């Protein structure tokens, strides 16, 4: 593994950091989360037009930049530093790879160029708090998380004019505002139980959407009700949907890990700046040995998490570290998207979420009484850590699944039988 960044990767990071610094400060952040959409459409347009961020990891043949998951993860690190509320996670990290992997040629041609240009936003609609299960982050994604043939979740039935969906999905990222819904639904009843993905326009007849109150306001969520809605099957009915979701989960884990590292690094930087200014007993509190030791521990934890996140991003690229815009577009789309989710992605996500929680908690502590108030942004980083763990964790289950995937605790006899 070559740990150094290419000039293209450095340029992506630098340009994106400068743009977010000028367009997404604390005041702009608060204004964006208070809008009905929960993000600033003008910022999303700037990210698309100036940097091509929505299409960063999509092939050039579909209007994308043609980079790999590595570049996308590095971009997520910069977005995480500012906690910028954008459709990036829902549209670019979760939905676009699934359309690229499973969609028909017609569906790819119709949707991916619009996703890459930023004119179309999308989200993956999974019933209830089952997103981590669907992406195989905390265990096997087989089972009844999409509905299980019983009341609840989203059900799909075949009709004369195609497919019809009915049910409800809660806590859907950008579910209240996304232009396109990629809905995971249960089909086939008990006898032919299976999970399929369907394309539904956000304004389709029978779709009712409402924004939900979320712990982390920078990750807006919505409730989606589907009342006998006409839907289009994504790809072919015999496609391996669960494998595609697991492969998308590996890329998502790497992107989230880098995003958490960016947030943790920013929280630590702000804390260090503050302890140099705040005075007690006639001297800055940053000069006290106890404060130095605590912040040194946080620094070590953040740097270790950064190494894990970068390795996960490198591992999420099937070329195993080629990770540059010049080579990734030449790989077949199916080969890039249907890789087995590596355990290092789950471990990296667990470690970075731990680091973010520690860094943000220490930031609140050292900022004193103002740290947890709405007037200060320190609490936003702590809510990001807690919110991500609720959506994509918890941490102990991420680690347990990684250990199971790597067969860490199997006996030698069990390993021989498995082989």
UniProtKB/TrEMBL annotation:
A GO term for molecular function: flavin adenine dinucleotide binding
Pfam families referenced in this protein's UniProt entry, alphabetically: Acyl-CoA_dh_1, Acyl-CoA_dh_N
Keyword Flavoprotein included in the entry's annotation: yes
Domain Acyl-CoA dehydrogenase/oxidase N-terminal span(s) in chain numbering: 6-118
Signal peptide stretch: none
Keyword Isomerase tagged: no
Keywords assigned by UniProt, alphabetized: FAD, Flavoprotein, Oxidoreductase
Boundaries of every Acyl-CoA dehydrogenase/oxidase C-terminal domain copy: 253-399
Highest taxon above the source species: Bacteria
Cofactors that this protein relies on: FAD
The family this protein is said to belong to: Belongs to the acyl-CoA dehydrogenase family.
Name of the featured protein: Acyl-CoA/acyl-ACP dehydrogenase
Organism, as annotated: Streptomyces muensis
